[in-house]
Amino acid sequence: MQRDSIFRQIRHDWRACFERDPAARNWLEVLLAYPGFHALFWHRLINHPLYRAGVPVIPRVLSNISRFFTGIEIHPGAEIGAGLFIDHGMGVVIGETVEIGRDCTIYQGVTLGGTSLQRGKRHPTLEDNVIVGAGAGIIGAVVIGAGSKIAAGAVVVKSVPPNCTVVGVPGRVIYQDGKPAEPLLPRVDMPDPEADAIAALQQRVEALEMGLRKLEEPDGSKTLQ
């Protein structure tokens, strides 16, 4: 992952607020009212450098304080590229071994979590320009390819190629490079009780008519009325 200086990263985060949020009106509004920017600022300036320096306890305590004020939990060990935009942000969780590329966007309620109790890489990697919709979960040491979009509420447990759109639980690719993914999604037919009842009646009538014909066939003297 390409690394910029801390202040270049913060400046890139600052620009991302204006580039990706039409509600951002001026610098003072972003400075005072954007918890996503606040959480990233403290992560980059203090929490992550202390963690990389091997300082015990303090980085976790400071990240907890940041979570209290912003509603965003970023483990101090997470590696975050420049230009991340966390929109709204409440309930976002970013785990210890998460890696996030440049110019990604994360909406509220997103979880970048782990599934293993083992130390080592156990959280997701987001390559450049990934968008993760509100309430989505990306779980485990999976890789989300550059330019991919994870739909709101999706749960992703497998790696995703670049330039894909993922929806559903569990997450499945429905578009790749702007085209429907193969294999196509299976058609889901909803039950229709009325149609089922009519079909059953038709089958019953046909069975009764066939029975009457069989009763009248031996002597040929009766005809179906």
Can you characterise this structure?
With 225 residues, the protein is α/β, with parallel strands linked by helices. It folds into 2 domains: 6-180, 3 Solenoid (UDP N-Acetylglucosamine Acyltransferase, domain 1), CATH 2.160.10.10; 189-225. It has 5 helices and 16 strands. It has helices at 6-20, 27-33, 35-52, 58-70, 193-216, and strands at residues 73-74, 79-80, 85-86, 93-94, 99-100, 105-106, 111-113, 125-126, 131-132, 137-139, 143-144, 149-150, 155-156, 164-167, 172-176, 179-180. The chain has a 7-stranded mixed β-sheet with strand order 3-6-9-12-14-15-16. The longest helix has 24 residues, at 193-216. The mean pLDDT is 90.
Topology:
Elements: H1 6-20, H2 27-33, H3 35-52, H4 58-70, E1 73-74, E2 79-80, E3 85-86, E4 93-94, E5 99-100, E6 105-106, E7 111-113, E8 125-126, E9 131-132, E10 137-139, E11 143-144, E12 149-150, E13 155-156, E14 164-167, E15 172-176, E16 179-180, H5 193-216
Parallel strand pairs: 1-4, 2-5, 3-6, 4-7, 5-8, 6-9, 7-10, 8-11, 9-12, 10-13, 12-14
Antiparallel strand pairs: 14-15, 15-16
